[in-house]
Amino acid sequence: MTEQTARQKAGELTREEVADYLRANPDFFIDQDELLRSLTLPHDSGRAISLVERQVHLFREQRDTLRRELVELVSIARHNDRLFEKSKRLLMQVIEARTLNDMAAAIDDSIRGDFGLDAASVLLFTDVELPEASQGALHVVSPSAARERLGSLLEGERAVCGQFRESEREFLFPDREEPIASVALVPLRHDELAGVFAVGSCQPGYFDQSMGSLFLSYISDTLSRLLPPMVQRHTAAAPVTDMATESR
């Protein structure tokens, strides 16, 4: 015979049965003031406290926990609000840009100035030689070279964050005196892959896979739609420029 069975035969209740009853009857202690005063619980200080004191202590702990969570949520909301304003300013400048280099300059200034990062890079994948290329944050590379150097980083549509291999970082951010240690990269893809947008920090571990990339994705979505027609305009303008040069 088990201890629990013996107690049940003797008419005694187990702890589990008492706990289940109180859960099913949370109003049990109403009009039981004397019983509440007689119940005591151990406290961290070592002294015994009443059940009411214990409840008050638990409610205060819950209040403090909720207060900390609220402060954290407000801090996150303010941070996201600042990110939204910075992203909005950048996107307005990108939309108003008339040339590829104007766009690249706006991105470079915003990422390093507003966002406080160390580098920005817009890599366009094309085999066509553009009249404006490889200035500031703008770099033009062939699709084959991009696939060879970046490989699986181009397969997805979402941002990829991490430290990356040294060869990948050098390809994304060429001609830098201070090397980039941590990178967030988003493929520029609307119908087809047009390039990549990358931001970098000299601080190792600044970007990791747990970081949110919502605002980075907003920027890359806009670039994915603006860059292809802008590249076409520059490509169409190149022969006209050559003809004008030849006629002089």
UniProtKB/TrEMBL annotation:
Highest taxon of source: Bacteria
Pfam families, A to Z: DUF484
Gene3D superfamilies the record matches: 3.30.450.40
PANTHER family: DUF484 DOMAIN-CONTAINING PROTEIN
Protein name, per record: DUF484 family protein
Organism the protein comes from: Marinobacter flavimaris
Taxonomic classification: Bacteria, Pseudomonadati, Pseudomonadota, Gammaproteobacteria, Pseudomonadales
